[in-house]
Write the structure tokens for this entry.
Amino acid sequence: MKSPEKLSRFEEQISPHLRSAYNLARWLTRSHEDAEDVVQEAFLRAFSAFEGYRGDDAKAQRAKAWLLTIVRNTSMTWLKRNRNAGATVEWEETSEERREPSADPEELLLISCDREQVRQALEQLPVEFREAIILREMEGLSYKEISAALSVPLGTVMSRLSRGRDWLKRLLSSARPVQSEGGTGIR
Amino acid sequence: MKCDDSRIYLPAYLDDELDVGESLRIQKHLAECGDCRRAQDEQLALRSALRDPALYAHPSADFSKGIAAALRGAAKEEARAQRSSWFESLRFGFRWVPAVAALAAVTIVGSLLLVNRMRSSHEQLIAGAVLAGHVRSLQANHLVDVPSSDRHTVKPWFQGRLDFSPPVPDLSELGLALIGGRLDYVDGRPVAALVYQRRMHNINVFLWPNPGAADDAIQQEDAQGYQILHWNGAEMTYWVVSDLNSAELLEFARALRGH
């Protein structure tokens, strides 16, 4: 492929997903500057690797999933390399992790929809759950696409989504009444 | 369907990932079971909270422009690699176009990501010194002696302070702002330090004369989270240190060298 042709195809198929790329990087790195660095690096990598990408113009979603895979991998490399390594917060799973669905209707529907609380909860979420949730809820990727992007089996995608949502529900429903129960490890 | 099953399938149902048969079964169960309906409402409440458009992070217009410019730069670089003579003969002589393109891509990835080892131990010492100089300049709040974005102010300032006159190119077209200049001390001699900035990342350029040294390729090293670049060109020795990512720093070094 000649370079000018490659560039125009790239700009047509991949560049429109810059917004998604930035959103994902922003949520993974939790920093504006870092997200810009990661996206820039990811775009240059994507451009180099574009020869190997066989997308057709009709499938915008596929191009997006392809780009987001690169952004995700670049973010992870970046997180490992930089001081933010602590972003992979090891959250100790407490024994009450797998809580039985409660029959008590009072306990349900306590979810806070306060935007700042949701933002904080999402930022606190361990990164392996956070990435699955962002790809699903904000970017609308299918389980299969997420599985490819994270290089994990479909079953793992489902369990990470489900556990991630449980974490969030717990954080959001206990945020007001109980702040922290004897240091469950929230940093 | 029992509640236990329903809770397991509920997320996939709401994510539209169940087949028709399973969806119908869970719908039937939801119609009959109040607890599971509440669980569904809870999931939906969480979903709408997460899909709040205000939580979506948008890139700035400037950043989008910067990405477009970086891509054009990368394309130009590839075109140059494709044009070079022996590539050209291969391309016309054989049906090797895809292989050549792949090779060009590999070359570019290589030049962006490959970390060349600095050669001699003397160079290692200098690398350590310039890295220390960079960190010191940031810590001691002594980034520049002559703060100016005007190269016609920065260049003359070195007169009388150094026994050479460092080139001070204007790279503002590439989004690289000149911040100023400073005297530093490296390899047992006073040297010129130029400071450029891109998106809050400071770039220190240390340079001094190196008469008789042959021009060579840009070498790159990763040290303690910083990138260090080094080359000899136009009878000068250049050392560049920054926390900017390697691809952009390489682009900066090429631009500096081209001037």
